[in-house]
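Many introductory courses stop at the sequence. We go one step further.
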Amino acid sequence: MRRPTVLIAVLGLLVAACGPVGQPRTLVPVEPAQRPMPANAGVTEQLPDEDDVPEEGAEQDCGDPAASLPPGGTDVPDGSTMDEIIERDRLIVGVDQNTHLFGFRDPTTGELEGFDIDIARELADALLGDPDKVQFTAVSVADRIPALTEGAVDVVVFMMTMNCERREHIDFSSVYYVAGQRVLVREDSDYSSLADLGGEPVCAPRGSTSSVNVDAADPRPELVEVDSISDCLVLLQQGQVEAISTDDTILAGMAEQDPTTEIVGEPISSEPYGIGIPKGNEDMVRYVNAFLEELREQRWSQLYATWLEPALGPAEPPEPTYR
């Protein structure tokens, strides 16, 4: 009978593995798992000062950045930019696909929807007689201007604030919406404005005026930049940032998606949105401005009521200014 010997040997191995009887075991410390950051998301120590990075031929002041060329009517001359689009038989538009209410994919149909999407369809209808003759090209915030300068799209309809720096590279239509930058936080937080977030991580889309405003805030938050604004909501939900600061139009869509969040503070800026157009295409600028004049009179209020009024309350079409 060898079983008692085998049993004793096994018990001896277990005692050796567990250490001497009566002495505490030494456990290997377990580090908590770090939540992964979205692709290309990260802390920006400080944005470059525009005054320290002058561009050759750059103008210091463009006057009113929201002032556009006067409308030129909706007739299409031969050889014009609009005539080339008609020959192609489709309008190519750079848009967002990640911002609820403005430009997003319906999870059921997979179709792009939103306020900006409908404006792009209205423009296609005005120029080509069919709102479906539009080819949407999804771009990031940082890629809006390159899409225009490289000729990848005819126009960009993507919550694009008109400012002097951007006017050095592209042209803009007249204003079609005015937003204001605010802050989104968790409902159970104690933050009431951007001023409360000094030193705390705050998310904003890379290449946006929102990032510039967060970077310039005093006291300065820790700026976390992302390529897609929807990544900011993920970071807030995971506790990797304390707040999101960007246009209230975008934040309203996020608050609707996640009722545990809320918008706080007064607007820290005014953000006039214009349709981006390649530099030098003045005929297209004048055509789009004529289109927007008609849109404000006939369809703007209906589009606003469909997409934005439930979240942002009533509003009137913005008054355009012309040079």
